[in-house]
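Onboarding guide, step 5: your first structure request.
Type a short instruction followed by the sequence, for example:

Predict the 3D structure of this protein.
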Amino acid sequence: MLEALHRKATQLDITQPVTPSTPHMYLLSKNQILFLVSWLALSLSAVACSTIAPQQPNEPAVPPKLILQRLSVAFLGQDGSAVIGSGCSGDDGKGTIINYHIVVGGVDENKQVHRIIVAGDNSTLTWEFPCSDNWALSASNLGNGNWEIFIAPSLSSKVYTVMFFYDDDTFALGVGVAP
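The system replies with structure tokens like these:
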């Protein structure tokens, strides 16, 4: 009897749909199996994440401050300016590297700018002021909510995202498109 069941089980093709001749068997298609395996993997990773970094019971949840301030960003490209070099210090090649020039408008004049980040769409490099571990950028307040930014070129990007972080934990964001 056991041999007959084993022989029948080895002859089964689990990719075939259930037929009236096998109503007692629940067969799964390849898509159903892939779905179940994916669901199981996601469920296990969700459980693992919730146990790795649980929230402290005495810490209140503090939502991040967010302002919906949109900046205007004009990407002027390489216009001959050589203000900043490469690297975090911005000194490598300073004065010899022709920079990308970006003009930003709409910065809140009533807030103190704490940090500025520029990111290209190719995800290869981020420029920031003050620099921590990316490449430095040079930023000057031109007044009336307008700023001028210079960055050393990297792999070309079509889209540059500019973020201004204020000292009250809010930020503003704008996107410029390279011609």
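Each response can be followed by summary notes, for example: Helices lie at 2-10, 30-52.
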